[in-house]
Design goal:
single chain; 641 residues; mainly alpha; 30 helices
């Protein structure tokens, strides 16, 4: 009987994995988008040409998403490129495989948790319920961006190692003796998989929080008391809360406060807004619709006070009530308490005081598991009763799985057709500046291939104008208007150009703003843009004149401007001047010094250039830069003039 139950659970899980592949298959044929480009496609370190120590080291340190750089995730992107180039299908397929592996780990975790509470839940088939939870978790439509948005492999890969660590920790604790096997599992969990989780994405740091939820609720319920390890975790949790305030107020925590200098909202406004966002997440999870989801959610209003908007205070009170319910229910209804606590701990980093964007669907990747577990207790009781109630349970589960699978399949199909996805998301989210820009960009791309289709160009322009009006800090839409004007009238719209200059100079510099100048340089070099050198110089000058731009961004833009002046404008003196400004910020940067040596060679100062090149031989360079260095050292006459 026991073997047959395990076989049934395994069969359901296998069907779920196969269904996930079928559901997501059409979406694997989509393109890279948004943060995929700066983190992967345009990242020199990801372009792994060989498996040498230097190339792998560059891939390991190629991350720019955080202070740690997320090297494990970046290395995985580089390996993808090594084996398949920048083929989006291969990258997305890798994400899907990781997602399915995580589904298996969710099953193993769910089995351990439900088995620990078997007596209280009175479940007939723990394995089957764990498999059903895993399948729901796998196919839920809110998980889609963690699979088809390639850069969010950072989320799923971090979850993979965290789930491995947590499963091993629970298995070790449930042995009830600290023997060699238990110690080995604990060492592997905490000393190997936990660091790998953090180095994939910083959310891995939440492992102690998830362990605390297990120990304080499930472990205590299974054992009937809180043992020494559980009490230690409780004291450490209280201590963490007590030291958080002083840490933020100290010089060590000022990086968090400083992060809000590049946001359009303050720390207080974020803390007021996130409770509303969490309830939005819960609604999207429990009652998902096509209109709920999108790549961008910048249309959610920021809370400026407890009553603006009016839902702020009820959302905050509801969150406090939810936390209180978890505490009160922890003894009598441990699965309910665990599910709530897991969800809240899962959001405690990205949905709290850290100066991130306000809303992203992928933040629910692990928290979703807690909400999926909650219904098991009630459904399990009904499933034990024969007749109508058992039939209703089976019918309800089939309906939920079918509906979730249908929604996810529809979303996946859209993510395989960029033109359709962007237009539908713009219809569902008309107040989103980024969504409107994406819709406009897609239409303009279609118009480029069909010059006679003026209607598409007009609609694209309308989306750009809406995006510009919706967000005073947004600039991509202005760039889109410039490109559109150059393509249709071969003239520069001076009003748009001046507004872009003003926003570069006065408004917040957003993460994607540097890509505007990169695109301008590339398009100018290819003859696809009608901006003059004076226009382009003025945009660079406006960008670096912004008082809120970090020194690193200024350095990068000085270097990019130097490239434009050298390769496009052929003004070596101006290029050297811009490069000098970049070197004043980071004098020892090997990439900048290599550019300086190239300018020396071009100007005939070959001895001076060779001395600098010899100094750079032991520096860490990308594979392309290393090739350039070797070429200059061996065949200096081959340098382009």
């Amino acid at each position: 009987m026991k073997n047959s139950k395990h076989q049934l659970a395994g069969f359901v899980l296998l069907l779920g994995v196969l269904a996930v592949f079928s559901i997501y298959w059409s979406g694997l044929h989509g393109l890279f988008f948004f943060d995929d480009h700066p983190n992967i496609v345009l990242n020199p370190g990801v372009k792994l040409a060989d498996l040498s120590r230097e190339s792998l080291g560059l891939a390991w340190s190629s991350g720019t998403s955080s202070q740690l750089g997320r090297p494990v995730s970046q290395s995985s992107f580089a390996l993808n490129h090594y084996f398949s180039g920048f083929n989006p299908f291969a990258f997305k397929l890798t994400n899907l495989v990781i997602h399915c592996l995580n589904g298996v780990l969710v099953y193993l975790l769910g089995y351990q948790l439900l088995d620990s509470l078997r007596q209280k839940l009175n479940l007939n088939n723990v394995g089957l319920w764990a498999a059903l939870v895993a399948v729901v978790w796998l196919i839920h439509p809110i998980q889609l961006t963690s699979v088809l948005y390639v850069v969010q492999r950072m989320t799923s890969l971090s979850a993979f190692f965290l789930l491995l660590a947590l499963v091993l920790h629970i298995r070790a604790r449930r042995r009830n003796q600290l023997d060699r096997v238990a110690v080995s599992w604990l060492i592997l969990a905490w000393c190997a998989f936990w660091p790998l989780s953090i180095l994939s994405k910083e959310t891995g740091i939440l492992l102690p929080g998830f362990v605390a939820v297990y120990e304080l609720i499930v472990r205590r319920s299974e054992r009937g008391y809180l043992d020494g390890f559980g009490r230690l975790l409780l004291y450490l949790s209280i201590l963490l809360v007590l030291v958080l305030g002083p840490y933020l107020a100290s010089p060590f925590g000022q990086w968090i406060v400083a992060g809000y200098e590049i946001r359009s909202f303050s720390l207080l406004e974020r803390l007021l807004t996130e409770p509303r966002v969490l309830w939005e997440y819960i609604q999207w999870i429990v009652f998902p619709t096509m209109g709920s989801f999108a790549l961008f959610h910048d249309d959610i209003k920021v809370s400026t006070s407890l009553i603006a908007p009016w839902t702020t205070l009820p959302a905050l009170a509801g969150l406090v009530g939810l936390s209180a319910l978890a505490i009160v229910a922890s003894r009598k209804f441990p699965l309910l308490a665990f599910g709530i606590a897991w969800f809240l701990v899962g959001h405690s980093l990205e949905s709290s005081f850290i100066p991130l964007e306000l809303v992203h669907e992928h933040r629910n990747y692990l928290p979703l598991f807690g909400l999926c577990l909650i219904p098991v207790g009630l459904l399990g009781l009904w499933e034990m009763r024969p007749g109508v109630q058992k039939t209703l349970v089976v019918a309800s589960l089939c309906a939920v799985l079918t509906y979730f699978g249908f929604l996810t399949a529809m979303r996946a199909s859209l993510y395989g057709q960029e033109s359709l996805r962007t237009q539908l998301e713009a219809q569902f989210h008309p107040e989103s500046a980024r969504t409107n820009y994406e819709a406009g960009r897609t239409l303009v791309t279609i118009a480029d291939g069909d010059r006679g289709n003026l209607l598409v160009s007009v609609l694209g322009k309308k989306h750009f104008e809406m995006a510009t009006e919706l967000d005073p800090d947004y600039k991509m839409s202005l760039f889109g208007l410039l490109v559109l004007a150059c393509g249709t009238t071969q003239t520069v719209d001076q009003g748009v150009l001046e507004e872009l200059q003003r926003r570069f100079r006065e408004r917040l510099i957003l993460q994607e703003d540097t890509s505007i100048l990169q695109a301008i340089v590339e398009m100018s070099g290819a003859g696809l843009l009608c901006l003059t050198r004076a226009d382009i110089d003025s945009l660079f000058d406006s960008f670096v004149a912004n008082q809120r731009v970090s020194s690193d961004k200024k350095r990068d833009m000085y270097a990019l401007h130097a490239d434009y002046l050298w390769l496009n404008a052929r003004d070596l003196a101006a290029s050297r001047n811009a490069l000098q400004k970049a070197l004043e910020i980071t004098p020892k940067d090997p990439s900048l010094r290599l550019k300086w040596a190239q300018l020396d060679y071009i100007e005939g100062q070959k001895n001076q250039a060779k001395r600098l090149l010899l100094e750079l031989r032991d520096e860490r360079l990308s594979s392309n830069e290393r090739n350039t260095l070797n070429k200059l050292l061996t065949t200096p006459e081959g340098v382009s003039k």
